[in-house]
Design goal:
By secondary structure, this protein is an all-alpha fold. The protein has one helix spanning 12-36.
Length: 55
Amino acid sequence: MRWRIRSTGHDPRQIDLLAIVAMILIVITVGHFLTEHPKKHLTSSFIEPSQTVRW
C-alpha cells in the first residue's frame, strides 16, 4: 500500500498519530496528578450506628 499525500490538506494518518500522542499525554498527566495529589480521606464521612438504637 503506497502512501498518498493529498494536495488538499494533511494526510489523515498524521491527524490520527497526533490524536494518539495527545491521548497518551493526557493519560500520563492524569496518572501523575493522581499519584502526586492523592485524595484526602475524610474520616467524618462514615457514621457508625449505635447498637442501642431501636427502630
